[in-house]
Design brief:
Elements (H helix, E strand, L loop, with lengths): L2 H10 L23 H44 L3 H13 L3 E7 L7 E3 L3 H5 L6 E4 L4 H4 L8 E8 L2 E7 L10 H14 L2
Parallel strand pairs: 1-2
Antiparallel strand pairs: 1-5, 3-4, 4-5
Length: 192
Amino acid sequence: MNPDAVEAWLRANPDFLASRPGLYGALAPPVRHHGAPLADHMAAMIAAGRQETARVLEAHRARQSLAARVNEAVLALLRAPCAWECAAEEWPALLAMESVRLLMEGEPRRHRVAIRHGMAHALLPGGRPLVRPATGNPTLHGEAAPLVTREALVPLMPGALLVLGAREARLLPAQPQPLLFLARALAVRIGP
């Protein structure tokens, strides 16, 4: 497409950029001021940049908030006489989660949800942490399943998962590093 064709198309579709504000970030702004329409274009580019900056800052704050909550949960784990009990009973409040559950293949035990053999792998086939919109699965969140809007599945050890569910999506950002640390700390406390 040549520049004249692009210009003709844009003139025929004057609301194209206004309906796609994300494109402003990809465009180079003009160097000089050439009247009101150009000023509006520049203002739109600035507004789009501000929105993107605000989004990035909010994501950073959410990651920092989760990291701080994970630190508190690990400290509670270090003090606790029973790691299983700490994770099941103290972590939901410390992590600001609606649901914190430990799923393990095998027989049911106190503070652990029994799952059938191979289910941990089926739920988390790649073996890497997964943060996603909630599935509403009661196996993952029990009675809290209808309240959970975002969930994280984190490998704990072979055949076991740490599952967290948040009522507010912002409390469980997509970056799983703090959750991996949390799971590793719990795995160390509960042993092989």
